[in-house]
Amino acid sequence: MHVRALSFLPARNDALLDDNRGMTLTTTTALHRFVEASRAGAGAVAVHDLKADLLAQAAAIDAVIAALRADPALLANFADAIDTLLSARRHRFLYAETGVLEPTSFSRTLRSRLGSRLLPHVADAGLLRDLFGSTFQSDADIAAVEAVPVESWATLFQLVTSSTAFVAGASQSARECDAAIAMLAARAAGLAVDPDRVRYDHAVRGSEAANEADVLELPAAARRWINAHAQDPHESPKELLKKLATAQDAVETLRKAVPLHGTSLALTHSLHAAHQTLERLRDLVLIRAALDDEERAARCATLFVELVGAQRTEQSLRHVFSQVADDVALQITEHASETGEHYVTDDRPQWWHMLRVAGGAGVIVGAMALLKVFIAQAHLAPLWETLAICLNYGLGFVLIHLLHFTVATKQPAMTAALLAARLDQEDATPASAARLADLIVRTVRTQVVAIVGNVALAVPTALLILFAFRAATGQSPVPEAKAQHMLAELHPWASWALLHAAIAGVCLFLSGVISGYYDNLCVFGRVGARLAVHPVLLRMLGHARTARFARYIGHNLGALLGNLSFGFMLGGVGFIGFLTGLPIDIRHVAFASANTAYALGTLQGHEPESAAAMAIIGVVLVGAVNVAVSYGLAFATAFRARHARYERAGLVLRLVLKRLIRRPQDFVWPPRTPAASDA
């Protein structure tokens, strides 16, 4: 509150007046201490002391403004101290680099920040950036600065910069700002000619990508305007801002094209760096081009708060990784969400189709489960046994995909990405909440029928194989000791079954990530188009078959590698447990149901009824944990990657619960038409 305003307060606010006078006196003392310390040559220490004195108080900046306005001599001394502080330091690195992603590669940026953690940076007394970083290094300091309205900072800046004692500091700030503008313009031009970005730009925009010249001319345009502005402060940066806007439009066009054309970690890092570089360049140009002190102070205050906030993540490994990785994760989940459309049934024909393709997978799973038993009975060396089991799982899942069947537990990674995408697209209205609730119902229904299809045919397939083997050989393919062990390892609480089911859920999630990654790689690397012109394939298969093969790989490489990797994860986790002695393994609902069928068929009533009942309960719980863990991880990843916010989540959940109470059959059996479901 300004001191002059206090004289107009009514008498009943005398206590408030005394409080503000007390703060003004305390603030005045702190300002005098800062001035004296600055005159003694301890400018950096003075800044830290002033921050400690003022930022700990509420409304401290308003009190500083009031004290400086009330005492012109104090204002002149304070401005002189700030002038001394700024004129003796170089500012350009603070303006051009703080809060702007490094233009180097993603890996080099990580190595640089990791190196600064292992061997801390030595502060340079001649750099304003280092003083700035040491002053605002705690979350409390940064929060205190951000809590002050930008208008208050602008008023304080205008008071200081308009003082006649701030001549040298103003001149140094202007020179350093011009240097930062030149640095950023050169950096933007360098990022524009990055080979990956140039190729990507031409792939996205074709002939329109020829306007790269506008970006490459930024450094020259920046130098021309800086020189002209030095001669005439009213020189408009119109030409520079036009080229800058063109460069920003080009970057935004490429960023928006990523879902269609794919991306890479290096390209995403480059586009992020270019976006932030151009934004900062624009901010600095507008600050230097401001024609009146009030506008310049307002822009400086906004930049000051931004620079302070950037100190939170200036050397953060997690921030630089998450900032770029979120974009890559978005592209991976974007492809997964497109696939997820195929895993949501709308009507009864689609429901029956899902039951059939899930049943087909169940038949193959029943055979894979017995093949694993045979591999274990072969008593191979641990490494070769593990490799054989991995190939059994991996090639089996690939066969399931080639035959257009589906494994139920593979769906959550796709449907979770689909739900996150819909949440991001929908607005917070009752109608959108109803659509999302219906999508959840249809997703649950599809997941249920897929699990039922897997289990419903995995069990009879296992029993059919067992009885056929017994009829042919006179003995069970599964030894009794192994059968008893199969039942015991599915006991819900007397074994590690649920932990192993959770590990399988993590593996399912990771396989979905791998699938999305290679789908993105296929698009970004144009794998299908490149295979179509591969000379070896053309000689071996001919043009027509090569074209069909390339088209299939282009659309299915992610799914094939995702299935293969899932198989190797399922087979390899147990081997890791064997090597480390840790109780880690996998339990997958389809294989668990097939194993239960083999065990019960082998023992034929000789097992305790309680063991059989517990194993069946265990199969149900294993399936629930598989789906819950996989879906939870996939949804959290997709939701975070999109930075999605949905304010009607409570309404969506209420609608789903209401649907469960009123029409529970909708969660397992579809209505006759999709319209009935929507209603």
Description:
By secondary structure, the protein is mainly alpha-helical. The protein has two domains: 92-126 and 167-315, no CATH class; 329-678, Glycerol uptake facilitator protein (Up-down Bundle), CATH 1.20.1080. The protein is built from 30 helices and no strands. Helix 21 runs antiparallel to helix 22, helix 21 runs parallel beside helix 28 (609-641) and helix 24 runs parallel beside helix 28 (609-641). The longest helix is centred in the C-terminal third of the chain and has 46 residues, at 535-580. The protein is elongated, with a radius of gyration of 33 Å.
Summed up:
By secondary structure, this protein is mostly helical. The protein has helices at 3-6, 14-39, 43-54, 60-70, 72-87, 92-97, 106-118, 128-135, 139-147, 150-161, 167-192, 195-205, 212-216, 218-231, 238-261, 265-289, 293-310, 317-340, 348-377, 382-402, 411-425, 430-473, 480-488, 497-525, 527-532, 535-580, 589-603, 609-641, 649-662, 674-678.
